[in-house]
Amino acid sequence: MSLPQTVISGPELHSPEEPAKKLQTPPVRGTWRASGEGAPGTRHEDTWPGLGTFRRAFSRSSQRASGQAPEENLGLFQRSSRFLSRSLRRAREDGSTADQSQATAVPGVTHDPQVPSRVMDGGRRQSSTGVGREELEPEAAQGKSVADLITERQLLAAFEQLRQLEARLVAEKASHSFQEDPTGFARRAMDVCLHYDGLAAEIGAIVRETLGPGGVDAAAIGELARTVCAEEAAHPEPPADGDFLLTPRRWRQHWEDAVRQSAQERVRQAGAGAAPGAAEAEGASGLAQLLAELGGVVRSDLQEVRREVLPAYSAAGFPAGEAYLRAFHGAVAQRLQELAQDARGCEQLYVLLDWAVNVYGSPDFLGAPDLTLSTEPLPPLLAPALWARLESDYTSFLETKVMSCFDSILQLEQSRWADMEAPDVLQGLYHTPLSIDVHMLVAEHVKAAGAISAELEATTQSICARALGLFLPRFAKAFLESKAVSEPHLGANINACEELRTSLLARFPGTFEELEKPLVAATRTFQKRLLQGLQGDVQPLFRDLCTKAWLTQDVLQPLMDKVVAFAGHLEHMAPLRAQETLQELHRYVVREYLAQVLRPRERFRGEERMRSAQKMGVDAQAIGDTFQGLGSEATWLDQAIPCVADILGETYKDDILRHLETLIGSYPDIRSVTHLLPHGPPRTEGHQAPGQGDWCLQRVPVSLGGQGRNPREAQLFLVGRVAARQARWALPRATRCQCLGTMVPDLQAG
After folding, report:
1. What ranges does the record give for the region Disordered, renumbered to this chain (predicted)?
2. How far apart are CA 304 and CA 321, in angstroms?
3. Mean pLDDT calculated for residue range 180-188
4. Is residue 139 over pLDDT 50?
5. Backbone Cα Rg of the chain
6. One-character DSSP codes across 687-736
7. 3-state helix, strand, coil in the chain (%, to 5)
């Protein structure tokens, strides 16, 4: 809002050689009202710096500053008004009689509590030309007024003149020169205060222009520093009598405030050219660009401070580096807090956290080791509560993002299954991108979180482990329901699970141990499905065993050919899982062979029984040699078929018992003891007891595992005293055994 323009005739400080020009100040138009509007013929004739002179100075300085600190200047003038009010109250206390006479002479001045403001109004209507003593006027530098010195930024010279005026004014007050005119003291004191405020405003303008486009020369900075130090020396502490003229001006604090304001203005220039909300609309990329611009502004400004500004301050003995560092640190912290309020999504939150820790907090952020922003003396860039909230929000978004990433991995795998793409063979093993995708996903997020903090890294590991544990059953179920189930794909998935189990547990010990069970469960599922495919192919071939044709033909060879072909896929699997699968296949073949032998489809008597026992020995050798050639380590299975063959081929009871002992001894982990009943069990109603001399091996639970192993158990049931007509293997009467009934192996897990 523009104020009425008034022709100002307020006097200025001039050199003593020009007394005739004291009251001939040329009219100046401005927006401020001078402290004297009266005609030149007033009773005060000496010349003091008036509001008119300050008006011109401030007008010029405000044009340079381009109106950058109106609030600051307003605060300075408000402080001057407060000082003036206190001065008037003290003046009235010192000379109440003179106050009353002056109040009578000056219209509008009474003893009302509002007297200070009225005196100020009357002061504006009075001339500010002083008390008519030319000897009180200090000699101006080169004939220039204080306002001109401030305008030309000769700050130290202006301060020295103001200091002399201040000292003379205080001396006059002490000599009671203003008892008859207390408002005259107030007017002259206000002129001094306003010039002090103008000097302070010029200090703020210099600070703001220092980092501006044009910059400020070193001489002006040095002048500023010396002026601040001179003011601190002139006003070391508040006076005991509370005289406001001698009160410390606190220009160092004013200078620090100006430095902070300048830093805030510079920081806000980053991204100022973008449209409002552009960073939020562009997401993480927009925020990253804004932060990059912010870092560039801070870096260039502090480098300029180091190269040009600090030497000028140091030459004047004025430390300024810490103030600039703290000012920019505070401005960046304030800007980051504002950006944190608008950050949305996992990416934006991470960009913000990463910039705060790894960009701004890096030792080479400013490009020079001696300009490192030390984190020890500076407060945290983000408040601990805000930092904790950002990390919490980030982990919440991260959980959703990781689950979404696993969904994407599953979709990629399903697309490969739909295209019926065969898995690749890398380094001799079936390969699927599943393990690589999971490794990259986990490693990327864990590494990114580790760059922020160790706590966030541990939290991210737990998030990835839980998400992977939920993903594995879904993946296995989706694969088994697809049309891509085949030996190569199953082998590739088994390899992927094995890679994840070994690598993740080794790289992240402790956190990923909970994945051991789901990974092993998924591997077992794929192994079981792999064996089921082969079992469906070879099961019909087992029906050709223990037949009349079996005695004369090699019906076992087609079955073993399929086993060998199947084992070719195991060569492309992880060795440990391939060995487990091969041993399971070995056990399956032995179990199914015994099942056919002990439940023959045709009756064997006499010579045929002896030939069948020999045939079983040959088949057992062929089975053992085949699996040994394939690399099976389940040698503990080799004795099962020969022991049964020996039992079926014997004709004497003692030899049968001896072979039974061999069978039992080959499997020392038998759970219960066999019962040889020479006279049979007690007779029960409805059942006939065995005859004298008959024996019955009622139950022989046999584990087809060797010493020190943890095999899957099988049970061989030998049920004696079965009617000869029900037996398929007819043993001679001489053995006193009516029948070696049936032996039913069950190799399922107990």
Report:
1. 1-144
2. 12
3. 85
4. no
5. 52
6. SPPPPTT---B--EEEE---TT--PPEEEE---BS--GGG-SB---GGGT
7. 65, 5, 35
Tokens (6 digits) for 454: 């160790």
User: What's the chain's length in residues?
Assistant: 750
Mean pLDDT of 677-701: 36
Amino acid letter for position 425: V
Tokens of 8: 């100002």
Distance CA 488, CA 553 (A): 33
Instruction: Tell which CATH architecture fits domain 387-525.
Output: Orthogonal Bundle (1.10)
Q: Are strands 424-426 and 429-431 parallel, antiparallel or unpaired?
A: antiparallel
d(CA 664, CA 705): 11
**Which two tokens mark 690?**
């065995």
* 83-131 pLDDT per residue, tens: 444 444 444 444 443 343 333 333 333 333 333 333 333 333 333 333 3
User: Is residue 207 within 8 Å of residue 266, measured between CB atoms?
Assistant: no
Gap between the Cα atoms of 453 and 67, Å rounded: 45
Spell out the domain ranges in the chain.
Answer: 19-209, 269-382, 387-525, 543-735
Please list the residues that pair with 705 across neighbouring strands: none
SS3 of 17-70: CCHHHCCCCCCCCCCCCCCCCCCCCCCCCCCCCCHHHHHHHHHHHHHHHCCCCH
d(CA 487, CA 581): 12
